[in-house]
């Protein structure tokens, strides 16, 4: 079984502890019971899950890595979570813009805006992960991930 990098373990534990503390603070204080803070909790959970999944052992040897179902699932989940984080950052920028410059519209449709942006971001993340997964998994990392050097991604 592959050995996980100690630095990755430390960072993942620190992120998990900080995330749990933030969620406890958000949960206990009524001031934080609003959609922007729920959005922050969703973002924190995405980062925590991403880091925890990276702790799972990736492979024992290159041949197993290329054919393992567990590796393929880990690669898809990590890709979805990475793309979802980018979509969430973009969504939050849209929310900030609407809240700052179109506050009447934002206040009137706050829940719908959050739900649509969250669903749209998740759908885009799933679609991108699916498209990139057709190119196979990377063999150069300690954990499983889709190939990152490919013409499909225009890199």
Structural overview:
- There is one protein chain.
- With 155 residues, the protein is mostly helical.
- The chain contains six helices and no strands.
- The radius of gyration is 18 Å and the shape is flat.
- The two termini are 32 Å apart.
- 17% of the residues are buried.
Mean pLDDT: 83
Low-pLDDT parts are none
Number of domains: 1
Strand residue content:
under 5%
Q: How is the secondary structure organized here?
A:
Layout: H1 6-28, H2 35-54, H3 62-67, H4 69-101, H5 103-108, H6 110-133
Helix pairs in contact: 1-2, 2-4, 4-6
Keyword list:
mainly alpha
In short:
It contains 6 helices and no strands. The chain has 155 residues and is mainly alpha-helical.
């Amino acid at each position: 079984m592959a050995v996980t990098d100690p630095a990755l373990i430390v960072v993942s534990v620190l992120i998990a502890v900080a995330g749990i503390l933030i969620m406890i603070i958000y949960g206990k204080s009524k001031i934080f019971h609003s959609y922007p803070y729920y959005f922050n909790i969703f973002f924190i959970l995405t980062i925590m899950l991403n880091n925890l999944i990276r702790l799972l052992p990736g492979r024992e040897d290159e041949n197993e890595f290329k054919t393992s179902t567990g590796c393929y699932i880990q690669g898809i989940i990590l890709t979805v979570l990475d793309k979802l984080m980018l979509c969430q950052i973009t969504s939050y920028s849209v929310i900030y813009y609407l809240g700052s410059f179109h506050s009447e519209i934002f206040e009137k449709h706050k829940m719908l805006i959050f739900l649509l942006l969250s669903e749209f971001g998740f759908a885009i993340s799933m679609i991108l992960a699916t498209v990139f997964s057709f190119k196979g998994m990377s063999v150069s990392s300690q954990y499983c991930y889709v190939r990152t050097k490919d013409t499909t991604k225009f890199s």
